[in-house]
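Field reference: sequence -> structure
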Amino acid sequence: MPFVVTENCIKCKYTDCVEVCPVDCFHEGPNFLVIDPEECIDCTLCEPECPINAIYPEDDVPAGQEAFIQLNAELSKAWPVLTERKDAPDDAKEWEGRPGKLPLLER
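Structure field:
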């Protein structure tokens, strides 16, 4: 069961999770991270590292966020692997916890 990055990551894009991933399954887009479900080994290390609780096991993705399961699979094939922590966007704090960010996802 792979882990899934959900809506709260959009425009926040904290990368603390990337540093602890032993298999480099994170991929970076312009304003969002995704997990490659084929590479994820379900180690659980990334979930507690996310400061905004945007990462869930696939079976525990919150109601209304199920579309992110497919989005992670799709976008991980198109976006480059990210293996090192980066600074979050300057306005990340302003976007934490805001609902309805899916239309803001940049591909």
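Note: Helices lie at 16-20, 46-49, 67-78, 92-95.
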